[in-house]
Amino acid sequence: MLGSIALIGAYLAHTEIVKYLNGNYGYGVDADLDIEFNLLKIGLSVLIVALAGGSLFTYRQSKKKQLPIWDKTSKNLLINLAIPLIAGGLFILSLIFVHPNSYGLIAPSCLVFYGLALINAGKYTYTDVRYLGICEAILGIIAMFNIGYGLYFWAFGFGVLHIFYGLLMYFKYERAK
């Protein structure tokens, strides 16, 4: 589900960018601010829907397995996930608001910091999460050397890798039961 949401978000962002580049954009005074605002809305919407979906699936799994949703392990998982994500979020906000000519680094930075967060949190969940984090971080680093293709790397990292990971986890842990 998370990968599909990311791919939908990437498609919507791509559509906005194509309209902007073709000159068919801008309904306000400044088309540059319009596209920035719309891309930010898309990104935040994808984040909110993904977090809500992830929370729902976590809740359903904990009920199904009759486990508490909040215990010491989940607290440690959340803390270790949040530290790199917050640091990355602040870094990305600085790219948006303080260094406006650095937009090409936003998508790669998302991948790198998300990957680091998964690696950091991986010790409190399946080891496969750590491998997903390594893949995300490596993909982000590769994207840093391919500025201008960030949306494609972002779609692959958050979309395709998540779909692959979800299928892997399903067949490895859920279907085997």
General description of the model:
- By secondary structure, the chain is mainly α.
- It has one domain (2-174).
- It is built from six helices and no strands.
- Helix 1 packs antiparallel against helix 2 (31-64), helix 3 (72-97) runs antiparallel to helix 4 (106-121) and helix 4 packs parallel to helix 6 (150-174).
- The two termini are 21 Å apart.
- The mean pLDDT is 89.
Task: Record keyword descriptors for this entry.
177 residues; mainly alpha; 6 helices; 79% helix; globular
Total of helices: 6
Which percent range describes the beta-strand content? Answer: under 5%
Q: What proportion of the residues is helical, as a percent range? A: over 70%
User: Kindly state the mean pLDDT as a whole number?
Assistant: 89
* Helix-strand string: HHHHHH
Structural class assignment: mainly alpha
Number of beta strands: 0
What kind of assembly state do the chains in view correspond to? single chain
- How far do the termini sit from each other? 21 Å
Low-pLDDT stretches are none
Q: How many discrete structural domains?
A: 1
Describe the main β-sheet briefly. none
Radius of gyration over C-alpha positions, nearest whole angstrom: 17 Å
- Taken from the alpha-carbon principal axes, the silhouette is globular
